[in-house]
């Protein structure tokens, strides 16, 4: 079975989601191909090979907005190479390419997958609904390739024993006006400490922290634990922290070893982004708060009493 994985290169490396999908693809098929969009650094190509890609189709879009050209090039190649399955990540460029490619080839996309199962040659996708309380399995019928968009952190990225891949340079075919948009400038949001998606420990705060000033206790605790800071949408909407801190359905999906939920109710839209964390520690003054339904350790209490004591205990230990 031939499986392609779409990979975007940023800062000299494929996205971590591309490596997660390659790891899963290895367990599903025997012919794994990456379609890399970006400059094609040795580091990026090496990482794709190490995670299972034996071949990398490489498209360097230069300063062109990559999606239209990538979709056109993939459609041409898929027409001649006949892959069975193409995986994209639930992230902006991947989704843009998946949509354009599906429209070009007149084939459907199954999105938001948390797992993929191949049984007797047919491909099924598992989705979570109702905040993960129910799993839905959907099976493709009809022509291949099948397109799947995968949620971050559904699989753990692990290098295999793959070596350097065969690299095949690809040119974007003429796509007229669709290819005329160029990237003039890009802005990277400045941040300190570990990245939310990759952090081993996350300290997240919700509206129950009280105010932007009082949210400082979340930041202080995170600093003492060398943790990343997370937040609910309520906190982001209130302007206490930027959107890049938001965990949940319309924010980031995270899977740290330890997740602190401080003054967070545990709305379904928050839970879908963090419920697969290793150990969840929740502090909430309402013992009926839904967050306690997923917590491994729950403290029913006031964050303004519990969090300062945690901070004090950690300070005295350091
Ligand atoms: C389409 C859609 C997408 C969404 N996407 C997201 C998303 O990605 N991420 C997300 O987080 N939300 C998302 N939401 C919003 C979500 O539904 C909730 O409104 C939000 O998560 C609530 O945030 P919260 O827990 O901080 O606030 P609240 O629900 O107001 O909860 C505050 C909690 O703090 C507790 N509390 C109050 N004071 C204290 C105290 N002193 N000590 C201890 N506990 C205290 C309260 O008991 C309460 O449980 C989305 C909603 C929609 C409709």
Describe the structure.
By secondary structure, the protein is α/β, with parallel strands linked by helices. The protein folds into two domains: 2-179, HUPs (Rossmann fold, 3-Layer(aba) Sandwich); 196-317, TPP-binding domain (Rossmann fold). 27% of the residues lie in helices and 27% in strands. It has eight helices and 15 strands. Strands 1, 2, 3, 4, 5, 6, 7, 8, 9 and 10 form a ten-stranded mixed beta sheet that branches. A five-stranded parallel beta sheet has the order 12-11-13-14-15. Helix 5 (216-224) runs parallel beside helix 8 (303-317). The protein is elongated, with a radius of gyration of 21 Å. It starts with a strand and ends with a helix. The structure holds flavin-adenine dinucleotide. Flavin-adenine dinucleotide binds next to helix 6, helix 7, strand 14 and helix 8.
User: What is the total domain count?
Assistant: 2
Q: Share of helix among residues?
A: 25-40%
In total, the number of strands is 15
Average residue-wise pLDDT: 95
For the largest beta-sheet, the strand count, sense and barrel status come to: 10 strands, mixed
Helix/strand-derived category reads alpha/beta
Rg, nearest Å: 21 Å
| The level-1 CATH class of the largest domain | Alpha Beta
State the CATH topology of the largest domain: Rossmann fold
Task: Please render the helix and strand layout as text.
Layout: E1 2-10, E2 13-14, H1 16-28, E3 31-37, H2 42-50, E4 55-59, H3 66-81, E5 85-89, H4 92-105, E6 109-119, E7 122-129, E8 134-139, E9 146-150, E10 166-169, E11 201-205, H5 216-224, E12 228-231, H6 233-237, E13 258-262, H7 268-271, E14 279-284, E15 297-300, H8 303-317
Parallel strand pairs: 1-3, 1-5, 3-4, 4-10, 5-9, 6-9, 11-12, 11-13, 13-14, 14-15
Antiparallel strand pairs: 1-2, 6-7, 7-8
Helix pairs in contact: 3-4, 5-8
This protein binds flavin-adenine dinucleotide (FAD).
């Amino acid at each position: 079975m031939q499986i392609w994985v779409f990979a975007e290169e940023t800062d000299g490396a494929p996205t971590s989601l591309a490596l997660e999908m390659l790891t899963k693809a290895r367990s599903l098929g025997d012919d794994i191909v990456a379609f890399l969009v970006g400059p094609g650094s040795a580091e990026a190509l090496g990482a794709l090979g190490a995670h299972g890609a034996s071949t990398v189709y490489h498209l360097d879009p230069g300063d062109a907005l990559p999606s239209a050209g990538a979709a056109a090039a993939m459609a041409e190649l898929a027409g001649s190479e006949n892959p069975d399955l193409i995986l994209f990540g639930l992230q902006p460029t991947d989704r843009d390419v998946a949509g354009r490619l599906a429209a070009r080839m007149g084939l459907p996309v199954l999105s938001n997958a948390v797992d993929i199962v191949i049984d007797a040659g047919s491909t099924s996708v598992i989705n979570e609904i109702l905040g993960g309380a129910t799993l839905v399995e959907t099976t493709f019928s009809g022509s291949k390739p099948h397109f799947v968009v995968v949620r971050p952190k559904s699989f753990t990225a692990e290098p295999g024993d793959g070596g350097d891949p065969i690299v095949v340079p690809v040119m974007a075919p003429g796509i007229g006006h669709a290819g005329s948009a160029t990237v003039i400038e890009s802005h990277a949001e400045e941040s300190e400490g570990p990245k939310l998606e990759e952090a081993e420990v996350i300290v997240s705060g919700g509206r129950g922290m009280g105010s932007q000033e009082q949210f400082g206790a979340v930041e202080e605790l995170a600093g003492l634990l060398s943790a990343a800071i997370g937040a609910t949408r309520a906190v982001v909407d209130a302007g206490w922290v930027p959107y890049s801190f938001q965990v949940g359905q319309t924010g980031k999906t995270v899977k740290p070893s330890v997740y602190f939920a401080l003054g967070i109710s545990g709305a379904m839209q928050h839970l879908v982004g963090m419920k697969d964390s290793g150990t969840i520690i929740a502090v909430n003054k309402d013992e009926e708060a839904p967050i306690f339904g997923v917590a491994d350790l729950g403290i029913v209490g006031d964050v303004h009493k519990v969090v300062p004591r945690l901070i004090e205990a950690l300070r005295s230990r350091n």
